[in-house]
Amino acid sequence: MANKRSKLDISSIHRQLKNxxxxxxxxxxNFENKQSLVCFVRILACSGGYRNSFSDAWxxxxxxxxxxxxxxxLFDIGILxxxxxxxxxxNSLNENQKYIVLxxxxxxxxxxxxxxxxxxxxxxxxKTSLKEVYWTGIFGTHIIKKLATSKNMxxxxxxxxxCGAEQCHCGCGEQLVYGDTSMGHREVWHGxxxxxxxxxxxxxxxxxxxxxxxFEMKIDDLEKQPFPQAIVTSCSMRGPTPLxxxxxxxxxxxxxxxxxxLLFESEEFFFDMKLEISTILGLWLAINNQAFGLPINPAFIxxxxxxxxxxxxxxxxxxxxxxxxxxxxxCKNVCNIGLPIHEVFSRTKRGNIQIILPK
Length: 359
Hints:
Number of domains: 1
Strand content: 15-25%
Number of strands: 14
Structural class: alpha+beta
Shape: globular
Largest sheet: 10 strands, mixed
Number of helices: 14
């Protein structure tokens, strides 16, 4: 027998959110201007056609900063604004969609009730020197899990489960659930993400996430980018599914749509001084993308900014693997096949190499 859904009181949820309406309206305004840009990413070369784990995967990319989309055109923050104004949900939603959205709104209301305490915890541990596993547990427990409608948050068991971090490091007593967070396929890109949710994946670092604007890519930096994980996340979960990258000062959202072959990278959402409301809303929308994710607009496709990943995989005879055979679980790091050096030095990069001649 299927589990019965808990009943949600729409009036009560509306009243609870209205207690924070000034802060929430201020956050919503940040998505109305060019401060919430999302860039198109093009892949010039990558290791996606080979058997390699995320730790060895690489991409050479470029971004056209003259063409961007707004974050609100990927995730519908208008639903929140309308609900704050009227206390009703869009008529265009069916009953199941309304329930999912209302549950997400209730989750946001509960988060906002505890905002001050959460901000104190994040700021306290953000400023301390922590092992990555401890920061993963703290941010996952107090931000990611609290903003998600599904509380089934799994932390990677690869290298984490034996670190003595059975509970959140802050002392709140929240148990961390470890398990298999792997995805992909053993013949191509595969590996584990740090946190896996029902509708999002999360990668955590204790280093700052680089701002890629005016950043000249170096060979050593090719393996530090999250694009392989972003692509594999959506392919393995059979639809556009956000990859969220978390440092100790900011977060970014990456999103790949296989059908249109569009790869998106958001601007940073910051929490280096305090947990900004725009950061909370940006994460909340992405984590609950099953409620707020929008279909890829035809204008985005017509902009001519496809990533080129599908073309590269077609040439490598691996497109079918990504389309039909990537999956969740059971694909932790496997034996890698070495990459030919000429694949690393793509044509674009080769033309920029300075040859040191003998004296």
